[in-house]
Design goal:
Layout: H1 3-24, H2 27-32, H3 35-49, E1 60-65, E2 71-78, E3 81-88, H4 97-100, H5 107-118, E4 123-127, E5 132-136, E6 142-146, H6 151-154, H7 156-159, H8 164-169, H9 172-176, H10 186-206, H11 222-244
Parallel strand pairs: 3-4
Antiparallel strand pairs: 1-2, 2-3, 4-5, 5-6
Helix pairs in contact: 1-3, 10-11
Length: 248
Amino acid sequence: MNEKEIIRSNIGSLIDEYRRLSKSKTRKEMEELSEATIRADFIDRLFKALRWKINDPDEYDREYSIKKGGRADIVLKINKKPVIFIEAKRFGGIPHINERGDNDWLLEERQAILYAAKEGGRFAILTNFERFRVFNASTGLTILDIESVYDYTDKFEKLLYLTKESVETGKIERLARKEVKQDIDKEFLDSLKKWRVALANDIYENNKDNNVLKDEKGNIDLDKIKDAVQRILDRLVIIRWAEDRMIL
């Protein structure tokens, strides 16, 4: 077999082992397995299959100390320099991406991204083997999401961008270029209109006696309400912008 098929076979063996384990245990028993067990039995072996030397701390560094506090569970290094920061969790410890929502990160996702950004890493990963998410640490955007062990087979070609060779040669950047950026589309604009109306109605109903919103004749000034709505929306946009860039 060539290198690609060897990797495919090794990952397939891991999937088979997971299936056997899940058949021999209840879901509750699966979720009671320690994080250390998941790392040793599945996560470490997954990266070994991807041709990382998991027993070499210059390449696969466990419990990596972050300069300004904290520890990354695993850091992948090239020439002893950290490139990918990994947060590991137990089975059941990562909700499906659809449950999480598309507009925010889990605490563990944010932590992995922040660690990578602080240490000059290029990518961050959150995984418990059942799920495997890769993020561009510069933008925080998801560039690969595996939400089931079956996805390892379906998304195998993309997973190959995480082999040591692909990271070392820069091929992984092709995966980063595939990240999906959401445009300001019709759905967003429609939502914005609804927010404006809802805010305007709320401000009107709760501030009828507020002189700040009245004109010289003592009547509610619609232009002042519109201005108040715009100020609130502007501040929300700024807060969201700061969160996305991990300033807040």
